[in-house]
Amino acid sequence: MQSKPINNMPDEPYLDLLDKVDFNPIFIMGDHRSGTTALYQILVATECFNYLNAYQIIKYDELLDGYINGTQEQTRQELEQLFNSLQISDRLLDEVKATPDLPEEYGFILKNSGYESYLSPENLKLFTQLCKKIKFISSLEKPLLLKNPWCFPNFIYIKSVIPKAKFVFIHRHPLYVMNSKLKAVRLMLSVKSSYIQLINKEYKQIFDQPIRRFIFQVLYSGLFNLGLRRVTQQSLLSTSYFLEHIKLLPIDDYISIRYEDLCQTPELTILKILNFLKIEAKATLDYRKLITPRSLKLLPEVQRSRAQICSKLQAYLTYCSYQV
Question: For residues 248 and 194, what is the distance between their CA atoms, to the nearest angstrom?
Answer without folding.
Answer: 41
